[in-house]
Design goal:
It is a single chain. By secondary structure, this protein is mostly beta strands. 0% of the residues lie in helices and 51% in strands. The chain has no helices and six strands. A six-stranded antiparallel barrel has the order 1-2-3-6-5-4. The protein is globular. The N and C termini lie far apart (32 Å).
C-alpha cells in the first residue's frame, strides 16, 4: 500500500508531498521520537510512525530540535500512518 491517500479528498487545504524526518514529543514523555513526514499543509500533515504507539491524541512536533515546536492533535491513524492537525 502506498503512503499516499488514493480515496476521496476531504482536506480543507492542499498538501505538499515531502520526505522529511521530524521529531515528536508525547505529553509526560521525556523521550523525543523521530518520525517521517510524508505531506504538509498549513493546517496539518501526514506522518509515518516508526515503532511509536502515539497513545496520546495531543503532542508536539518539531522541525528544528524543539526551538519552535508545533502543538498537534491526532486526527486519524491506520497502521504506521497517521494524520495530524496543527492546533493554533
Amino acid at each position: 500500500m502506498s503512503a499516499e491517500w488514493k480515496g476521496i479528498e476531504r482536506r480543507r487545504t492542499t498538501r505538499k508531498t515531502v520526505d522529511q524526518t521530524v521529531l515528536l514529543s508525547l505529553p509526560g514523555d521525556v523521550i523525543v521520537t523521530p518520525c517521517r513526514m510524508l505531506n504538509l499543509s498549513v493546517l496539518g500533515a501526514g506522518i509515518q510512525l516508526r515503532d511509536t504507539p502515539l497513545l496520546s491524541t495531543e503532542f508536539l512536533l518539531s522541525f528544528d530540535d524543539f526551538r519552535m515546536p508545533f502543538k498537534c492533535c491526532l486526527v486519524w491513524r491506520q497502521g504506521d500512518l497517521a494524520g495530524l492537525e496543527f492546533v493554533y
